[in-house]
Amino acid sequence: MKKKIQFRVARSEEMAQREEVARTEEMAQSEEMARSEEMTRSEEVAQSEEMAATGLNVTVSHNNEKHNLYVTPQPGTSEPVVQDLAQLVEEATGVPVAFQKLIFKGKSLKEMEQPLSALGIQNGCRVMLIGKKNSLEEQVELKKLKDLEKAVEKIANQLEELNKDFAGIQQGFLAKDLQAEALCRLDRRVKATIEQFMKILEEIDTLILPENFKDSRLKRKGLVTKVQAFLAECDTVEQNIGQETERLQSTNFALAD
Question: What is the spatial distance between Cα 56 and Cα 73, in angstroms, rounded to a whole number?
Fold first, then answer.
């Protein structure tokens, strides 16, 4: 009888040990599956982010032509938007952005700032284009305007740097005995920037665009508006530099007295 009881106790302990081992193995498997799923999700996110950063391939159909385009996001943005696609389409087909009708799965792409991913456009998707090319003569004029637009962007970057330098002086990042000379240099820089913008306006004014060059005339009007806005900004910066110079001179005179 005693032996039977001991056997049952041993058997119970053995079963308990087996159950404990089974539970441990099950928990280990669950943890491994969780880690595996987490790694898979991380890889998918990484692939998605990589695609957004590097862009995606889109096939655009126009009449009987097909254009394989690689759309990349603009600097400082995380993924390409409709505007990025439209710009590439204009370069590839000659159809101006303003006269494009891009269609994906029966829907027109109208919101230019909307990410392509939000519309379901992924790598390898097809987009249809409806629109008429400009004449060769107008394309020549558009090329001139695009070159001028690039020149304006370059000058605008100089103006942005100038604004940063001026803000640094206002915030006291430069020694006081160096501020007067720095303000003089900034004043010369802003005057040179104004002169560059004025030359752009003169070049735009020399373009003779017929009435039927609608896209060119629209682009010229937009470019003139943009340059005028930059000139107004230059005037404001120039005035601020003058006021800061006067304030500094008054302070120096007061200290001298």
Answer: 9
